[in-house]
């Protein structure tokens, strides 16, 4: 299961770098490293999963114990990363909102990537402004041309609830814990039956 989750991390990292670049352009420099971290973590998980398969095929107890220990370490790192993300979620949101407000204020004043980012975000998320369409009323662009074409009327797809799915998080924790338990059980089974292997 570890190679599969590693491949998923790699895919999400590459997808994030390619598809979410417009969102990262409105964040601080530190946040733009997230896709690279995911690609690196995915690579480590794929290598670890391959090591686990190798250890299982060889029937080596010390390799399986090392695999279980490394899997536990990765689980703890993911848990710490999730807690850090949860703790700093308000700061990330505030940073994104303030940068989006600045991008709205300077929209089309100078041809830059922030104006393109605003258009792409509004078009993709089917939303308008930071909070709603009235955010545009305080901009220079609005006084000259009104609301931009990328702005839409529907706010349905912009809710925070659409981005939250706790069932996926529970499933990931469950699969990781099952992997740790099964690796320990297999190691113990091989140790108990070691005398049969000659």
Automatic annotation (TrEMBL):
GO terms for cellular component: plasma membrane. Disulfide bonds join 127-158. The chain crosses the membrane at residues 36-54, 66-88, 173-191. Its main location: membrane. It comes from the Eukaryota. It is found in: Membrane. Keywords: Disulfide bond, Glycoprotein, Membrane, Transmembrane, Transmembrane helix. InterPro entries: Tetraspanin/Peripherin, Tetraspanin_animals, Tetraspanin_CS, Tetraspanin_EC2_sf, TSN6/7_LEL. It is a multi-pass membrane protein. The keyword Cell membrane does not apply. Coiled coil: none annotated. Belongs to the tetraspanin (TM4SF) family. This is Tetraspanin. It comes from Limosa lapponica baueri.
């Amino acid at each position: 299961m570890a190679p599969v989750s590693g491949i998923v991390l790699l895919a999400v990292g590459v997808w994030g770098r390619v598809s979410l670049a417009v969102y990262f352009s409105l964040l601080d420099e530190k946040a733009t490293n997230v896709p690279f971290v995911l690609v690196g973590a995915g690579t480590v998980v794929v290598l670890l999963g391959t090591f686990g398969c190798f250890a299982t095929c060889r029937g080596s107890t010390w390799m399986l114990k090392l695999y279980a220990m490394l899997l536990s370490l990765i689980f703890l790192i993911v848990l710490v990363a999730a807690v850090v993300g949860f703790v700093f979620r308000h700061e990330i949101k505030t940073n994104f909102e303030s940068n989006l407000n600045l991008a709205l204020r300077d929209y089309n004043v100078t041809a830059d990537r922030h104006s393109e980012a605003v258009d792409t975000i509004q078009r993709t998320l089917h939303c308008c402004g930071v909070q709603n369409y009235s955010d545009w009323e305080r901009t220079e662009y609005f006084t000259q041309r009104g609301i931009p074409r990328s702005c839409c009327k529907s706010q349905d797809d912009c809710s925070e609830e659409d981005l939250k799915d706790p069932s996926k998080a529970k499933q990931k924790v469950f699969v990781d814990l099952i992997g740790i338990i099964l690796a320990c059980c297999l190691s113990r089974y091989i140790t108990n039956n070691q005398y049969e292997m000659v």
